[in-house]
Amino acid sequence: MEGYVTRRTTGPLRSLAVLWVCLLSSPGCDVGAVHENDAVSTGFEWPSSAQLDADFHVPRPPLSDETFPCSDCHDPEIPVNRQRRELQMAHTEIQLRHAEWGRWCLDCHDAGDRDQLRLASGERVPFEESYRLCGQCHGDKLRDWRIGVHGRRTGSWSGEKSYLLCVHCHDSHDPAFKPIEPMPGPRPPRRTP
Amino acid sequence: MNEANGVSRREFLCAVAGCTAAAAGSCVDVTHTPFFRERLRELTPDELGAIVARLADSYRERYGRDFEIGTEPAQDGVEFAYALDLSRCVGCRRCVHACVEENNQSRDPEVQWIRVLQMDKHKGIDFAHATPYYDPETVPEPGHFYVPVACQQCRNPPCVKSCPTGATWQEEDGITVIDYEWCIGCRCCISACPYGARRFNWADPAVPDEELNTRTHVLGNRPRPRGVVEKCTFCIHRVRQGLYPACVEACPTGSRKFGNLLDPTSEIRYVLEHKRVFVLKAELNTLPRFYYFYGT
After folding, report:
1. pTM for this entry
2. Domain B74-296 top-level CATH class
């Protein structure tokens, strides 16, 4: 169709390759690896993961000094209570609305080192790399975010850019984007009586 | 130009000025005055520098501020394009107001280059039933989606074709710009634009002094006089220095994407190659550089 740009080259083969790679390497679907297994050529040069990670600057995660480091309160000497329960002593403000039927604190927070997060594979990741944790389920969003299509980028279109972490816009415990107040609209044209 | 007669407009004016100056006994080069000068794109860098210096003086006199008026030309190998993710835009109008502040748009009378249209999900893209005047407590409203519309930076721009004085043209990097001194305010371009992207200054633009953005470009956000047309320039003063446009940085949902169409690793190319993309009013063959896509 004239004027339309629809160059969709993804196909079943590609989906299979993505699935296969995700299954093989669960800690964060590796963008670079997807390309190597991608039989459909798009003409698009995928930057390698390392290149991507080196290319962008992620600001500090939104952790307050009051709550971080977590180990200030979570003393490693205290035995870990893995029981799923309603929290009484602390973190009572957290309402888990994020696949809460199948998830609990320690699925993402590491019980051994409270100052880190934990991937499904058991690998510990710092809060600065929380996107790897999110990307375990939201692989498509991680891919788009790395490229710069999901989420806001600031800085230079031709040079250094800044990203935001997933958790800067999404509350990790309740990630749906909340409605916001709109800024004033244009004034309607005056009608003569 | 009047090359056919062997005398260009400038030579003619110089000659007239020379006679006048001789008659008056003083030397005045009128070809650099706002009224007699050539179009900005026809000037040599030296002439442009002189014009810009003159402009800066007049702004200092009028606003009491020092303006930085950029003259950066289009970069080689760069063609700008824009993509907006309709699946993420919530219609909060942060972009509209960031644009107004960045580009010195008149507050009263109100001039806004971006217009966010609220549309009904059941109707789809339907300009006849869209409204920019929605005003709920919070956005997005259920059952609606939002389509921000500004200049689409067409490859085949009807506005440029309709301008009788050649006051608006497409730059090498794809940005359609306006020479505010050559604009006669006939508004042919406004009626030619199928996207309603151009705005007319019906009165003297009013911007509070403390809110003036003094970082400007001669083809972009420098203060405009009354009676001329203005429009989005992709923040030409920012993008020609490598920065993102103001609306891209203001969008809280990250719906706005911008980059170089000729760079295969840019995010804009990724969007065009991997997402469902469309342009507004494709049937008009304006070939916009502004794309809308569904990021999910």
Report:
1. 0.82
2. alpha beta
